[in-house]
């Protein structure tokens, strides 16, 4: 299946929303190249994300994230999975909204926690109570994800292949043109 345009398809949402997993599936189904902003950052820096946080703190990480995002959203014909905090900076939100079709993958805190609790590669969740941290980040970010979203997809009850199958016709019907 292919789309009638080559605008980047860009996935946003919380840690554990499924951006990387669903993004890969969408790219395969659409015959597009898949890019993951976190992986792009790691490739640019030569170290994993927790190491960037350790050395430069969140502020340094966000600067690098913004630069990598600006480069990625300029690409055509791709599916891009962003990092969970890519919507925090106003300039990033502008870049997202004016570059492609933005899909917000939504899930509730319990689901996000279930999906992230075994993985230690998310420095913001290295807290005494990661579930409470997720809840607080979701409250802060929900309006930002909604602000940039062209499509909002609830993923909680659906396995990964079903989420991919749900999004494909929505992308075909999306009339956003840039
Ligand atoms: N719809 C779903 N149902 C069940 N499990 C899912 C679903 N979507 C993703 N997962 C699982 O949740 C975990 C986290 O998914 P993924 O890494 O894709 O999230 P992410 O949004 O990219 O997070 P981050 O912002 O931290 O990169 C993975 O183990 C993935 O297989
Ligand atoms: O939600 C966030 O702020 C983050 C999500 C991950 O994708 C990484 O970008 C990083 O761990 C920060
Ligand atoms: Mg990811």
How would you characterize the overall build of this protein?
α2 crosses α3 (49-73) and α5 (109-116) crosses α6 (130-148). This protein has seven helices and five strands; from the N terminus they run βαβααβαβααβα. The chain has a single domain, classed as P-loop containing nucleotide triphosphate hydrolases (Rossmann fold, 3-Layer(aba) Sandwich). A five-stranded parallel sheet has the order 2-3-1-4-5, with helices on both faces. It has helices at 19-30, 37-45, 49-73, 90-97, 109-116, 130-148, 160-173; strands at 9-12, 33-36, 78-81, 101-106, 151-154. 37% of the residues are buried. The chain is α/β, with parallel strands linked by helices and 178 residues long. Helix content is 53%, strand content 12%. The radius of gyration is 15 Å and the shape is globular. The mean pLDDT is 97. The structure holds adenosine-5'-triphosphate, (3R,4S,5R)-3,4,5-trihydroxycyclohex-1-ENE-1-carboxylic acid and magnesium ion. Residues 19-20, 36, 38, 81 line the site of magnesium ion.
Main attributes of the structure:
178 residues; alpha/beta; Rossmann fold; five-stranded parallel beta sheet; 7 helices; 5 strands; 12% strand; globular; binds adenosine-5'-triphosphate; binds (3R,4S,5R)-3,4,5-trihydroxycyclohex-1-ENE-1-carboxylic acid; binds magnesium ion; P-loop_NTPase; Shikimate kinase; EC 2.7.1.71
